[in-house]
Design brief:
Length: 264
């Protein structure tokens, strides 16, 4: 083991942990995300030499094409602050965008015809999935907005691009009768979860993180895990009455939120 090599930090090394066929886990190291695998152990000279060779052979990408923007966005704080699931989704879509637009000159963004080309590309994606087409377009729009704010691009041809997916949610609107029937059929230990989900519209993970201090008797305050947004939710008379009833029954234990304390 080379003690000198141990003291040299390597920038950009990407670690990937994978489960092998026998059930054990192994960590693989790559020179950068999407880069070549590195040889040897992280503290060895072989590892450092492999890293140096990988970067030496990497061709610097042209800064005048969209690929450069995609690369910079991936490395930006804006990207790193996204929720892990969102980062994963964005990474997949960025690969799609690179294949389609990676070699497009940044100057082409100023051409009015480029907006039409982007719309036509989204229409082709919509032939398979309208929702995915809109999501891919939204990622491109956000990337170009980020680039414009940082002086990497002068225009964003995706602005106000609209959507191709229009969903009717009329069949998903719950009536009072639906709620009553569900609560009558569901086990008692599920009632708190059902009431909170129905009357707040929040994700499961956000509800599980709530504590009684987040409810002041009138509103519930939380920060969404996926978006990072601080949300204030007025508590309806129905939900407020339910919570007050359960508090009266002595269901509050240890100051935790009802999804765990009201399960009894």
């Amino acid at each position: 083991m080379d003690s000198a090599a141990m003291r040299v930090p390597l920038k950009g090394v990407n670690k990937v942990r994978k489960r092998l066929a026998d059930g054990t886990w192994r960590t693989y190291h790559y020179a950068w995300k999407g880069g070549p695998p590195l040889k040897g152990q992280p503290s060895s000279s072989e590892f450092h030499e492999s890293y140096a060779q990988a970067w030496k052979g990497r061709v610097r990408r042209d800064t005048d094409v969209l690929q450069y923007v995609f690369d910079q966005f991936r490395q930006s704080p804006d990207f790193s602050l996204l929720a892990p699931r969102t980062q994963k989704d964005y990474s997949k879509l960025l690969l799609t965008l690179e294949r389609e637009f990676g070699d497009m000159p940044l100057a082409a963004l100023e051409d009015p015809r480029t907006r039409g080309e982007i719309q036509a590309w989204r229409d082709r994606l919509a032939a398979k999935s309208r929702r995915q087409a809109d999501y891919a377009h939204a990622v491109l729009a956000r990337t170009l907005s980020w680039a414009r704010n940082r002086g990497l691009a002068t225009v964003n041809p995706c602005e106000r691009g609209g959507r191709v997916y229009r969903a009717s949610r009329s069949d998903r609107v719950w009536t009072f009768g639906d709620e009553t029937a569900l609560l009558a059929a569901a086990p008692k230990h599920l009632h708190a979860a059902l009431m909170l989900a129905l009357w707040t519209g929040q994700r499961q993970g956000d509800l599980l993180r709530l504590r009684w201090k987040d409810y002041d008797g009138e509103v519930i305050r939380l920060r969404q895990g996926k978006t990072g947004l601080a949300v204030t939710i007025p508590v309806s008379e129905v939900l407020g009455g339910y919570l007050a009833h359960r508090i009266h029954d002595g269901a509050v234990l240890g100051g935790v939120w009802p999804l765990s304390s009201l399960a009894a």
